[in-house]
Amino acid sequence: MPSSSKTLAGTLTVLIGLLSHCGHVAHAYSSGAPSSACVTMLPIHGPIAQQVPSPYVVNVSSVEVLPSGTVTVTISGDDFKGFMVTAYSSDFAVGTMVPLNNQAKVVCNALSITHTGSALKPNVTFQWTAPGDMFEGTLINFKATIVKERVIFWTGILSAEPLVYVETSPDLPQSGGTSNSTTTNDPGSVLLPTATTTIAPGKTNQFPGHLASDTECGKSKACFHDCEAGKCTFIVSWDDDGDVIVMSMTYRVPDSNEHWVAVGFSKDQEMGDDSVTECIMHDGEVKVQQSYNDGMDNKYLDNKKAALSEQSGKLEDGLLHCTFHRKKSYPRDPLIFDLNNDYYLMVAVGEALNGIKIPHTFDVLPPVSDHRIDLQAMENVAGEEPPTNVLVQIHGALMIISWVMLMSIGITTAKYGKAMFPKINPFGVNIWFQIHRACLVTAAVLTVIAVLIMAVQCKGYCQIPLIAGEGKNHWPLHPVLGLLVLVLTVINPIMALFRPAPKAANRYLFTWSHWGVGVLAWILASLAIFIGLDLEKSHAPPEAMHAMVAWGIYHILFLVAMETLPRPLCKLYNTVSEITVQRGKVYNLERVHQDNLGCVSEDGNSVLALESVDLGDMTKQMKEEEERKAKKELTREEVKVQRAMLLFHYAAILIFTFTLLLVVYLYTPPLHSHADHW
Hints:
Elements: H1 5-27, H2 37-40, E1 56-60, E2 64-65, E3 69-80, E4 82-89, E5 92-93, E6 96-99, E7 104-107, E8 112-115, E9 121-129, E10 139-149, E11 152-158, E12 163-165, E13 182-183, E14 190-191, E15 211-212, E16 222-225, E17 231-232, E18 234-241, E19 244-252, E20 259-266, E21 274-282, E22 285-294, E23 297-300, E24 308-316, E25 319-327, E26 344-353, E27 356-357, E28 380-382, H3 390-416, H4 431-458, H5 477-497, H6 507-534, H7 542-564, H8 566-596, H9 607-630, H10 636-665
Parallel strand pairs: 2-12, 16-28
Antiparallel strand pairs: 1-3, 3-9, 3-14, 4-5, 4-8, 4-10, 6-9, 7-8, 10-11, 10-12, 13-14, 15-17, 16-18, 18-19, 19-25, 20-21, 20-26, 21-22, 22-23, 24-25, 26-27
């Protein structure tokens, strides 16, 4: 393959672009906290938080807030680069953040606010709007994580004093009337029109939206839930009543927006071909209706109320609750599954707009039961994160072996291996070509197998929804890149079968096209692997992405080293050799001069004749050296250095590959605790 400086520059440019893209995926935190920080509020780009007292203060413009009222929050202290703030009532995130300038933006469904740039800031001011359905006397604390430098940050910084939620206050006028907004005595607080909230009789001051575990689960009714330590995000319960299943769903909504909760009856533990019953908020009411998961798309049935009766629902105390009767058998519509059979249960939640579901994000997969559930039996089942699919694991392993290991070795061997082992010719073909061909053909076969595996898994094209969570817009590119890689992988060996003879006039066309297709496929496959490791289905930890970034950086360093390092390492040796040759020339000239004066050697032969032969050999060697330099060919010493570096490269690639496989496939992902998200 071509080894010109243009080739190196092009390769480096593409690889640098690749790494820049990957850095954006893994460490795009200069533009704000990522979605992974919504639960922990911790940056993952540095060591542990500082243990010394924080130099920052979080101040709130008022000590009280009315339903749907707004207060101003200010962070001040030393200059800082990044921040993330969330309002908490008990362990639940509440309210809505409102940025006041371009220094901040909302994240985590507007439950949190974060920075938009890494410039130093002396202070930041933003607003927070309270929910309209909290209890009188509820305490709200603002919790902040503040980053001074990349590796210097404080977390768990609380507002100077808690904010008290009040329905009426002598210090704050009530909202209402005909005006769109009302200004309080505090110029930093604006009250918005409040929503009417009904408080259940007998309720006392307590934190909103607390869903406690049901002690009757497994005793008087069957349940599927995500409860931990007595605290839950959802509970689905049911009871067998002859021809119908009496079901109930309760979901702790995280904010005052409209939401939905749905239970799916599935033949496996993955979304697709599932019968779904959902409860959805709209205009203060809760509707119960039927839908169906067609692959990754949820579609309503022609008759949304089919097989349903005795429906009721309400939103009370921050809990979305609905009950309904579901006929076990409904033969008129095959998309409504027969509940006399056993199914895996999965529960999904999300926001709604005007009574229409907004698809749930895919950065955290819905919990699913670990076994098929008999709805006629009395069970108490905890939801778990869906297990990693075996076919997905095989697909990922084959692609990593093909492109992280085999293609890395095959491409670099073609570029640097031709002069490395000139005397090793197994089966009459030089070893560099044997290695190159074996790696590329094996990689092509494994790639085809990997793509076919996913075609079987997805029953065709694996479409990833565009709505895939904050910062996940690159996810749908994964199958597209995979297909492009497949096409290029198949084309390249076909091109090789029809390559011209080595000395043919048009050989250069094949050389450049073969190189270009191979390198392009390598880069696209690397991008696909980066995205694949980020997909929730891969269950890959952040360390896997770090390993891939290290792999990319290593390749840049290796290419630079192979182009620049051999000559400097040999320079000292060559310098010493040249000095020795020069001394020999001086000695020979002196002997020639003596011979011209009549000097002879001890055996009586002429010194001039002997030295003339020596000078001729040296002249020939010097001429060969000049020709080699003109052709930019490596010296024998430089070849030895590159050979050692290439062997090191083989070992390094093997280490990278097996490390990545171990990190991805021996790592056991922790179960997401949905009850602890807020």
